[in-house]
Amino acid sequence: MDLFEASLSARLMATKEKGLYRRLRTAHENEEIQVFSSNNYLGLAQDERVKRAAIRAIEAYGTGSGGSRLTTGNLSLHERLESTIAAWKQKASAIVFSSGFLANLGTISTLMGPGDTIFSDALNHASIIDGCRMSKAQTIVYRHTDMRDLEEKLRSAPATGKKLIVTDGVFSMDGNIAPLPQIVELAETYGAWVMVDDAHAAGVLGKTGAGTAEYFGLSGRVHLAMGTLSKSIGAEGGYVAASEPVVEYLRNYARTFIFQTSLSPGVIGAALEAIEMIRTEPERRQRLLDNAAYMRAGLKEMGFTLVEGSTPILAVVIGAAERAVAFSRHLEERGVFAPAIRPPTVPEGSSRIRVTLTAVHTRTQIDRALAAFAAAGKELGVGALKF
Ligand code: PMP
């Protein structure tokens, strides 16, 4: 091992000692294990109709696009996907990126710059945080969903430059919904724009599954509706729906759009079919929300501490990182895969088991998961008032 590797190993060793080492898993390929932490909320990534749509697109257009959108990689499929997303999000236009991460990086760093101010919720996703850093705008982090703190920060911000409030619609690790009605009010009072990251809300919230803004009836007051195709939609890729000038600007200046090979045809075929199913078949969404409510009630009844929320993301707070890892291991021994989420993803002392429900979980599977939580809780002395 040379000096370079030795320094990497030393850091890895320290991470292991703190119980924060990360390992790759293939749990979903093990038939004896039921996954309770997927973002494939509606089960569409394995849906026969969606798979067939992907195959049809591959047969028609091939497996790769072969270039970036502005060179040789622009297919009518990309444009159809963008107009579908714009209509769904009730916006004039939309732009797709190769991932949600790149959508956030490209959008925030391109629209905001030195002299501008970004107001960012403390629990926003890493891709928002990195987008803010890349923008070189002043970024002011407000306490999680704390509207008083946000207002104070808006009031004392510089009077010049553009202002943007950015928030997850549904927080990825806590599962709560951003207080969007208050956010848009404050934005309008203080002359800021609003950007919502609906990675975990699209397909889940709203009458047509369009997400947080639709859920609150605020689509017209959110300027930048960002989301990903990788979760409920069951494919991959990210998007931003906005006004025509904003999208045109991003097409011209967002480096994560300009310099990246465009989405591959199979992914777009799948996404188009999935969005159509989400818009027209609300029963999947209802089943998902019913499953989540059932699991949430069951865990609460057993005395576990959950972050309050009403989405398919259930954060079962355990505390210390090592304890959360041990809890997750106990669950896995009982055939339930729900990983421990530890710092730096969540704050110190709030390590948790992130449970997510899907529309394709059966009641029998959920009951089995509840029994696994009961047994693990008993063994480790967590929660568990009633068994
Ligand atoms: N935003 C949020 C809130 C997310 O949870 C994620 C994915 N973990 C992303 C953005 C990034 O999306 P993608 O996985 O499509 O890159």
TrEMBL record:
The keyword Nuclease does not apply. One of its GO terms (biological process) is biotin biosynthetic process. Residues 35-372 form the Aminotransferase class I/classII large domain. One of its GO terms (molecular function) is pyridoxal phosphate binding. Its cofactor is pyridoxal 5'-phosphate. Its EC number is 2.3.1.47. Keywords: Biotin biosynthesis, Pyridoxal phosphate, Transferase. The modification N6-(pyridoxal phosphate)lysine is found at K231. Pathway: Cofactor biosynthesis; biotin biosynthesis. Pfam families: Aminotran_1_2. It catalyses: 6-carboxyhexanoyl-[ACP] + L-alanine + H(+) = (8S)-8-amino-7-oxononanoate + holo-[ACP] + CO2. The keyword Cell division does not apply. CDD domains: KBL_like. Gene3D superfamilies: Aspartate Aminotransferase, domain 1, Type I PLP-dependent aspartate aminotransferase-like (Major domain). SUPFAM superfamilies: PLP-dependent transferases. It comes from the Bacteria. Belongs to the class-II pyridoxal-phosphate-dependent aminotransferase family. BioF subfamily. Catalyzes the decarboxylative condensation of pimeloyl-[acyl-carrier protein] and L-alanine to produce 8-amino-7-oxononanoate (AON), [acyl-carrier protein], and carbon dioxide. Homodimer. This is 8-amino-7-ketopelargonate synthase. The gene is bioF.
